[in-house]
Amino acid sequence: MSKILVVAELHDGRIRKSTHSAITFARQAAMPFAIAVLGPGATQAAESMRAFGASHVIVVDDAYLGQPVAERFAPTIATLVTQGGFSVLALTASSFGKDVAPRVAAKLGAGYAPDISSVSPIEGGSLAYRRPVFAGNAFATARISTPIHVVSVRQSEFAAAEPDASSAALSPVETAALAAKDAAADRVEFVAMGEAKSERPDLGEAKVIVSGGRALKEKFAEVLDPLATRLGAAVGASRAACDAGYAPAELQVGQTGRVVAPKLYIAVGISGAIQHLAGMKGSKTIVAINKDPEAPIFQVADYGLVADLFTAVPELVSELKARA
Amino acid sequence: MKILVPLKRVADPDNANKIKVTGGKVDTTGLENKPNPFDEYALEAALRLTENGASPKVRQGEVVVVTFGPKEAEATLRSALATGADRAIRIDATDDQLDGDVVARALKALVEKEKPDLVLAGKQAVDGDSNQVGQLLAEYLGWPQATFAGSITSESDQALLVVREVDGGTITLRVRLPAVVTVDLRIVAPKSVKSTFTSDSHAYPEGVRFAALMAIMAAKKKPLAEMALKDLVADATLKIAYPAFELPPARKAGVKVKSVAELVEKLANEAKAL
Description:
Chain A has 324 residues and is an alpha/beta fold.
């Protein structure tokens, strides 16, 4: 019987929400699944993973996995897969998942399909995957021919799993040991993590995103912050705005930045380059505010407003205030 | 420092919205082949690491470029030679013989012959968007990796300080060579790459360099070797197949609103998004 191992993403002792999308993937694949939680604090964090109907939750609670270094995680994840007899390994399509998944695939001799957006059972008890290619301008059906499959799951395409109400029993927890260390891990030293400190929700988890383009210039924050605060939104940016230094790089939405699919995406002064559209086309409702009526962003927008953003955005803020 | 840079050519990414799907296959008719932008950035970073930014015509080390493809793919290599790479290798193959894993295994065999200190690659090719060759190669070689590099500082011949662009911020790693580094787009900002030869105050022009006419002529005389895929990988079995492609569902046509008030009204009552 085929079964899936979902690797949770643990950050500062907390399970990232992207993990819940990977659990939804496992449920849709309709196979039994286990969840692995790796890193210091995993024992405690694993408790929250016990109510999702997993066959068991595997804990590797070790300070060696305290920093997201692929060479440290790969041997242990690969060992969990082979020892547990798993046929599918699912990671989140985050920068961490994408860094480590191919290394694990290479160890397992497995094919790796990144960024999958849907899964379907096929003949022989196997799975086929759908994934975006050409910056989301086409979707490919991927078939992996190796006995073990490795995939990374797009958070924007799988709803976050809710705890399994039908099962009263919590999944049992098993602890596992760190695998033998890779020599390559000794040649990479973790120096620092620079985290953007923000009171706003993470781009991957936000229900509303207010995103700005180069047209905002030095007034990027001045114009967008009041709107984002009013809507409880995350702030995103186009590549052009980041390249010009108007917004920090980690806000970038697009093929080369974050891929997002909020309920509401408000694009302010963004022309809509192909690589930007690749990162937000899956949003439920898209609003575009741009003074150029020919801007390509209007082709994907549900609601387009041709206006000068420097007057339209403040007006939008006061209109929203008036409604509250 | 000797650096190996893999290059891929892709259908013009600026017109990726014009691709068609015919009979379940991607049809790029009418789209020009261009170098994968991330690979161009990797080449630029390799050149910056092997020169004094003040005199970029003198190579301090060696940059070798490699591509997989038919004879026409040599155009990609010639333009890389024109911008400053020393030597090129074409591994003869057609697209349907390749997946990320075969490419990584062939590159492993090539690395064992060429013995570079560093493999510098784009983080992904913008056609398949697969984002795996660098990581697979690092694992096959048993080398450390630093993916999604937004800046690289060469500390010595033995170590690089790499700032990676990750979800929500950055991660700084020090990797000891030999290693695999894959680059993100900000690697071509004016001060993103520092070699041991370039002064701290040096700022490059934004983006990748272009070849002068003289250099394009001279590149025709630079060595370009050809190898067969089977000479590098005995077993070229693919691990992943793409039996079908389709276009994404079209979004239904939107409407233009006349005012902010109308926008808010529609968001609240029609889209129920507020």
